[in-house]
Amino acid sequence: MQSNYFQQLTQQLQQQGTGTPQLILDLVHYQHNLDYVQSHLPEQLKPRLVVKSLANLQLLKLVSETLNTQRFMVFHLPHLTEVINEFEQADILLGKPMPIHAVERLYQNPLYHNMQIQWLIDDMGRLQQYLQLAQWFNICLQVNIEIDVGLHRGGVQNLQQFLALLKLIQQHSATFSPSQIERIDGL
Prior knowledge:
This protein is an alpha/beta fold and about 190 residues long. It has a single domain, classed as Alpha-Beta Barrel (TIM Barrel). It is built from seven helices and six strands, in the order ααβαβαβαβαβαβ. It has helices at about 1-15, 25-40, 55-65, 75-85, 100-105, 125-135, 160-170, and strands at about 50, 70-75, 90-95, 115-120, 140-145, 175-185. The protein has a six-stranded parallel beta sheet, covered by helices on one side. β2 (about 70-75), α4 and β3 form a beta-alpha-beta unit. The protein starts with a helix and ends with a strand. The model is unreliable at about 185 (pLDDT under 50).
């Protein structure tokens, strides 16, 4: 049955396709899978939707409603602003450190000053840049420290770096609100 299902999809795509990449989504199966996940989620677990792989707002709304969450992990500034504008109660975690110019561009709009965004910090240089930006805009930033778990994709690599970041965060408690430690091991 599965191979017949995919053969039919392939035929339909070849007949109706444009020769360009397209997303095909079987909404019946998709909704069934969402319902299954929702019915098996422990009540205390609050899922976070990864916008990197669900960058379509209609799909995000569907998943958000089905799983009763407005928690998102975002990787790019355009997705960040879309989620902020679409979901009033959005709790956003950055999935990678954001260049300071992108953060500055976001906060040039005062509407974003009080959004619940958790910024990912991977080194002292970035934390110092975020400090200057937060002081300039007179805002408090939620920050997460990224630790390198051995894959060398970024993050602090030793206890001294980690403690130095924590010290600076503590020294500027009016500017920084520590959120969590984040390990990036499978993205």
